[in-house]
Amino acid sequence: MIEKEFFTTIETHYNSQLPFVAYRKPNEGFVKAILQKDGAIHTVNDFTESGFLFSPFDSKKDTILFPLEQSKTISCEYIISSEISNISKLKRKKEASNNSENEQEQHIKLVEQGIKAINEGRFEKVVLSRVEGVPISEENPIEIFQNLLENYPTAFVYLWYHPEIGLWLGATPETLLKIEGQRFKTMSLAGTKKYDDAIEKPWGTKEIDEQQIVTDYIVNNLQDIVRDINVTTPKTIKAGELLHLQSKISGVLKSEHLKLVVETLHPTPAICGLPKIETKSFILNNENYNREFYTGFLGELNIKTSKSRNTNRRNVENNAYSTVKTTSELFVNLRCMQIKNQQAFIYVGGGITKDSNPELEWEETVNKTQTILSVLLN
Ligand SMILES: C=C(O[C@@H]1C=C(C(=O)O)C=C[C@H]1O)C(=O)O
């Protein structure tokens, strides 16, 4: 399918108010879409299903599925154009994103509560977040999606829509997991600073510690279900105009129960905290809004691909030499927004430790909001 046809097909589907997701995986040169044929709400029961899932932060709530057998899948090559200016941006109703003093005060208060709880020994790290609504006067989500595709080549970029649930977009740098056959990969991502023309600037102790907390949590919890675990030393990665610390973690799955793997990992201390139960309830009780799908996860669930083991032409023609692999690839829903009632709601947060400074934590959320808004708004 050619690019124009791809985008017209999803636009028609959206205009018919039917559920769909369009996405591009990190560094890939093509976009895919899964278009559900009816308007039903399907959910994931035990992670043996096949399709595209969209899961909220709070795992007690339903994980939505676009089942492959009830959807049409389309794809096309997507080359990033050098003429970004051709792509229209959202029209903002008010001039600048003026954070109200109230929002700032509220977030700083929340961070102070988090630090207090850490000092009382209730937990070690907690990720606290907020949502910012920006009034917009035009909403063509497909154009916003194209903007994200152009500006975030190394992110998982998506546009997700269900008429009864909502419209979400994002460009996330964080993988929750990739499972290919028995091969397993994840990452530990934390620590944030603004990119200012240099990637290799030293990190502070606060960031090094908060990323190590995530790595240790993942490695310790995977021991029972993954063998031959390998962890890379933390490296700086760039996500939009931000830098993070990242370690790659890989191994071989001992069991095929994807549900167990997901429950073991989600929510990691990269987006919730340590320990998990205490920080999750602190978040649900103290944040001033509902995260919904922000810091949840999304992606392909149990997709079967047939791979030929030998590219020799005679072997390719012989089916006996091809193998079928089941792959799942899930991403943490960060750097995302929901579009609702002529507003773009942008979700941002950051990890709080005993060394956090509330003012700086506020600024980190402002930087995160701006990295998203800068590519979207005129
Ligand atoms: C919670 C977010 O990001 C997470 C928190 C980070 C941090 O605290 O430095 C960095 C990357 C993510 O693991 C977000 O972007 O909203």
Automatic annotation (TrEMBL):
Gene3D superfamilies reported for this sequence: Anthranilate synthase
InterPro entries named among the record's database cross-references: ADC_synthase (IPR005801), Chorismate_C (IPR015890)
Annotated coiled-coil segments of the chain: none
Domain of life, source organism: Bacteria
Chorismate-utilising enzyme C-terminal domain mapped to chain residues: 104-368
Official protein name in the record: Chorismate-binding protein
Organism, as annotated: Psychroserpens luteus
